[in-house]
Amino acid sequence: MSEKHEEKPTPTTPLAKRRVGGLGRGLNALIEGSYEKKSERLGLVPHPANSVGLIPTEQIEANPYQPRTHFDQEALQELAESIKVQGIIQPVTVRQTGPAAYQLISGERRLQASRLAGLEAIPAYIRKADDQQMLEMALIENIQRENLNAIEIALSYQRLVSECNLKQEELGDRVGKNRSTVTNYLRLLKLPPDIQIGLRDSVISMGHARALLSVDDAAAQLGLFHRIVAEEMSVRKVEQLVRQGVAAPTAKNAPATPATDAPLVPVAEIKRAERHLSDRFGSRVQVKPTAQGRGEIRISFDSAEDMHRIISILQPA
């Protein structure tokens, strides 16, 4: 009579029952094999410094020093979908602030996307850091890794100089840039707010902004900026105008602009209108304001058939 051998159940944990957000067996096995206790893997007790562990996403709070305030939701959703399939390729970086509390140092996009993907825990590198080190690491990590626009980079440099007490030479060494590059970015913050917004929103390029910095008068800078937008000037054309003194400040005794002139349409409003109309017509739309408050709207078409399609949209139902 054969003896039946009862199979002992294999101990499982919530992490072992299901993949933690598709980490991938390589990274998952590495992290799980680093700790014998489930409580350590899940961040319920302090991790040793300079170690990697699985941290519940609900225990990670945002970095108060995060230099980037806007994250494109469509891009975040795309990253979330990628994480569902590929998992977390690179751990986020955190510091431990309590037995089951962590503060993000870097990896804000990965954390947000992981939450969108429904991950309960993500791999994190635990570091020791005080508040100033937190700020410095967050700023430098963003400058080096994220696709920041020129104004965000300039603001990050300014914070490193003022809040971390770094000299421009030291700052250049930290971010891997020479001093002249750092100086050029910091100078952007001297431009009028409207021009900074235009640079931030990619209405003008860094080359345009550097040319505008050669103009001493803020009013002249703004006037030339609006010409750049309205006439779609190249950087070379702007540099030529500046050399020729076309954008020179108005003389003190020159007559003032008549008060009856309508104010210029804000650049941000123009770009919003262009995006809205482009989506509406399915074609490129350009809004061309003038200094007197008038302007025109141009709708591009590729063929006679495309033109008739646009006309049909314009006609009342």
UniProtKB/TrEMBL annotation:
Record's GO cellular component terms: chromosome
SMART domains: ParB
Source domain of life: Bacteria
Record keyword NAD present: no
Domain spans labelled ParB-like N-terminal: 53-143
Biological process per Gene Ontology, one example term: chromosome segregation
Region (Disordered): 1-20
Database matches in InterPro entries: Chromosome_partition/occlusion, HTH_ParB/Spo0J, ParB/RepB/Spo0J, ParB/Sulfiredoxin_sf, ParB_dimer_C, ParB_N
Gene Ontology MF annotations: DNA binding
Alphabetical keyword list: Chromosome partition, DNA-binding
PANTHER family noted in UniProt: CHROMOSOME-PARTITIONING PROTEIN PARB-RELATED (PTHR33375:SF1)
NCBIfam families: parB_part (TIGR00180)
Family the entry assigns: Belongs to the ParB family.
Protein name per UniProt: ParB/RepB/Spo0J family partition protein
